[in-house]
Amino acid sequence: MIKEKVKTGVPGLDQMLDGGLLQGRTYIVSGTSGSGKTTLAMQFLLEGAKNGERVLYMAIDEPPNEVKSNLKSFGWDVSRIQVFDATPDVMSYDKTPVRDVSTERKVVYFQSVGENIRKTSERSPVDMTVNTIQEILKQEMKVSRYTRIVVDSLTSMRYFYIKTSEENAILMSFLRLLSDIGVTCIVTVQLPEISKPDVEAHVARGEIRLHKWFDGRGLMRGVTIEKYRGSAHDYELRQLRIGPQGITVKIPSRQTGGEEQSAVAGSALQAQAPQDETPPPPDDLPPATDSAAKNPSDSGSQTPSTPEPPPPTDGGQGI
User: Fold this and answer.
1) Separation CA 78–CA 187 (nearest Å)
2) How many folded domains does the chain comprise?
3) Is residue 80 included in any domain, yes or no?
4) Other C-beta atoms within 10 Å of 24: how many?
5) Stretch 163-192: mean pLDDT, rounded?
6) Angstrom distance (rounded) from CA 207 to CA 237
7) Range of the domain at 159
């Protein structure tokens, strides 16, 4: 039996996960654009860095300098997080030779990332493929024993890097690699407004889904644990908020007979937090119930007992 779990850095979410994530497994964080996937993933890495762990962020969606700039509003110190820039180059129309990205880019600490965006090579663009990213991860694991890795995002990898008909096989191979290296991984996945299960949702050991929708009170946010193999977990829809400390999740308080309270992020994330300019959402979330239901022995997907929220739309805050 696994006695200790890996905390996500979001205590409310950790309670939904019955203490955190199982060590050495790969998990999906999914949601529509702007639902907070990168924010949650970065809190996961900050929790590890706070404990002296080696952590790695694979930047595929946005260049590292933009990610660093976007996180300034939270006042977080991301200098101890290592990052690899896996964003694609702008390809030229000319059929010029390309070079392997591993010869041009290296893993660095966020504190070394400058303010300006990296420019496409003037000589020729570098070649970035799923196989290249796999090899970089293998080499990095030989040099630095990471305990946490974030790949942000698998959706961009699917759009920009996979150029064969064997898309699902390549993605399964990549997710298998993440499992084989024995590191606790979070892989972000962007969902369309009408989503359908993909290979990553089947292969990953769990999926945390971020919801975003509008109702008569404005923009609402929530989180569900769609799947968590090998552990009990909460399968209710819980209210989520993105504020000055990052993501917080509201859960029922057993000590106060069901009165809801906000679970705040770890002490490392509370330091130097700016004043929140976003008005807090209402204290109640209709789809949630007054008790945290847990499924004691999940071996696959779970369907929330409460209705799914209305179809989310683009817009709102979140990274």
Assistant:
1) 19
2) 1
3) yes
4) 17
5) 89
6) 14
7) 13-270
